[in-house]
Amino acid sequence: MLSDEIRKKHQEYLFPAGSHFYEKAVVLTEGKGNRLCDLDGRSYLDFFGGILTISVGHANDEVNQAVIAQMARLTHVSALYPTVPMVELAEILAHITPGKLQKCFFVTSGTEANETAVMMAQSYTHNQEILALRHGYSGRSLLAQALTGHARWRAVPSQVAGVKHAPARYCCRCPLKLTYPSCGVACAQQIEEIIETTTTGRIAGLLAEPIQGVGGFITPPQEYFEIAVQIVRKYGGVFIADEVQTGFGRTGKMWGIEHYNVEPDMMTVAKGIANGHPLGALIATVPVADSLRKPSISTFGGNPVSCVAAKTTIEIIQRDHLQERAKEMGDILNNGLQQLQHKYPRTIGDVRGMGLMQALELVVDETVQNRTPHPQATLRLLEETKKRGLLIGKGGLYGNVVRIAPPLTIQKDDIQEAIEILDESFACIEK
Ligand code: PMP
Fold first, then answer.
1. Mutation test of ligand 1: which of 19, 116, 137, 150 has the most ligand atoms closer than 8 Å to its C-beta?
2. pLDDT tens, 268-287?
3. What is the CATH topology of the domain spanning 74-319?
């Protein structure tokens, strides 16, 4: 097999750190729309979209044409110069982001966007300590690893002082062993005690994902953010919404945080913004942005090619109402997944998510009180679905969550096909 040769060289010349999900990594060579093809000629329906990054389909013609035209015009001058695509994209982001968010700082990844956001929270509030959430994922720099609430993603002990973690709002595995709604959203209420007992009493802010992505699409109860953000502001902090996974229509609205009735002071974005072209951004209110008094530059930040890709991607999302479509298709997908849970109640412990960000939590036996996570079932499911031509994702602290997030351009027939493949695959692993 041609792929074997690449896999061998990959092992020889690349760090082993990248995780591949499968016993044998898939070597992808081509993509169009919602389908991918590997080096051995096998085709796959893509229900993970390059980790929630392919918003408008692989090799989208409109994005490609815009990118090719920009490449012929100008590819790089650095952030020292304001280019037309950079400024136009910043203006679009100011218009489509909620509340008073207006000024943009461009980078090339979600990690850098979060790094910048924490620095800006400190610069604006003159406070140091920052809150993040357990089960959250913020990126791979040392600060982002310290913010991340998963031991698995921390390569070295955190050297960053002042990062505190509040409990996850993980209803099906409530860390406080309570049940919603009688719990009174105690996980959010606890933030006050955490601030009063583990910080100086004045904090820079809270950084949180509206839906925790790597954590396994953990979807908080409706009141969570109103309670949490009110407490954070009472203690001098700002609220940073990490929309790296949830942004750009993914959840059925343009932003994940729009489901929760709060306005962030900053928002970080990456992934779905440019359909696979490397771009990240921090969008902040004017006072927050203007509080930075020292120069700060990202050489590749706001690269004109990536900015043109982002501008075109956002135009397509808006023109084709892809956020509304994400809701509509997401409901169909969720319905199919609920039916699978009905059929395989022993293995599927929870179905959750919003729009085209849907997860299945696999358990050893749903009837066991604490729903023991079943990471081996997840691995087997990935192998079975791959065999049948479907790519899906994995996540969760225990590696037992199946993450499903196709491009926003997905069709009803594709969802039907994916559900059938999942059905056959679950039948196989429950045998
Ligand atoms: N925040 C969230 C919510 C993420 O899911 C990720 C990536 N999985 C990051 C930040 C980091 O983004 P990147 O990998 O582009 O640095």
1. 137
2. 999 999 999 999 999 999 99
3. Aspartate Aminotransferase; domain 2 (3.40.640)
